[in-house]
């Protein structure tokens, strides 16, 4: 299956169900590597992406608290999966389930950046997460990111789930991506 433009969904780019977008960044989020599918989907050339901040694809519909959560988690050596709405160079958007992982230098064992693996988000996950993201954005606009974070924490408590459980349930991942990379890391360590 190839990349398709779906004109019925108001400028949404529909991603291939099999292909993944891959990227690596340094510790500050500057892009060091992208696979060809990243350019195909985003509309940015590899030259435009390399050396740019990863937030070049950030969509304004994404609540800031979600990126705070992501950075807090990966800086503490915890991987994180998120449902993210990204923006292409031409202003179109695409939804992904993103897995972020901290990477370590093979010799020095010091952290040298991050890996992001993005694949098409399930439609049911998008439908479920959009109202929450809208609510978080509205709270951020009125009261700031800390109020948004408090709301997210209370929302998850009400759902009786951790953030990881919530995302895994929405995407039906059951941490398969995370488990795959844990296995790979064990084999290469």
From TrEMBL:
Residues 26-61 form the PAS domain. CDD domains: PAS. InterPro entries: PAS (IPR000014), PAS-like_dom_sf (IPR035965), PAS_fold_3 (IPR013655). SUPFAM superfamilies: PYP-like sensor domain (PAS domain). Gene3D superfamilies: PAS domain (3.30.450.20). Signal peptide: none annotated. Pfam families: PAS_3. It comes from the Bacteria. NCBIfam families: sensory_box (TIGR00229). This is PAS/PAC sensor protein.
């Amino acid at each position: 299956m190839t990349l398709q433009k779906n004109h019925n969904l108001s400028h949404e780019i529909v991603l291939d169900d099999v292909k993944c977008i891959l990227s690596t960044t340094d510790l500050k989020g500057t892009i060091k590597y992208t696979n060809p599918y990243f350019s195909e989907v985003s509309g940015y050339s590899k030259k435009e992406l390399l050396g740019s901040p990863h937030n070049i694809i950030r969509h304004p519909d994404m609540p800031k608290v979600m990126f705070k959560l992501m950075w807090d988690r990966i800086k503490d050596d915890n991987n994180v999966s998120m449902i993210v709405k990204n923006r292409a160079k031409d202003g179109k958007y695409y939804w992904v389930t993103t897995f972020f992982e901290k990477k370590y230098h093979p010799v020095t064992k010091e952290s040298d950046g991050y890996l992001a693996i993005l694949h098409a988000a399930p439609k049911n996950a998008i439908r479920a997460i959009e109202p929450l993201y809208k609510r978080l954005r509205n709270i951020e606009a009125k009261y700031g990111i800390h109020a948004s974070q408090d709301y997210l924490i209370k929302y998850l408590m009400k759902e009786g789930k951790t953030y990881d459980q919530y995302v895994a349930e929405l995407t039906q991942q059951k941490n398969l991506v995370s488990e795959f990379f844990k296995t790979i890391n064990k084999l290469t360590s």
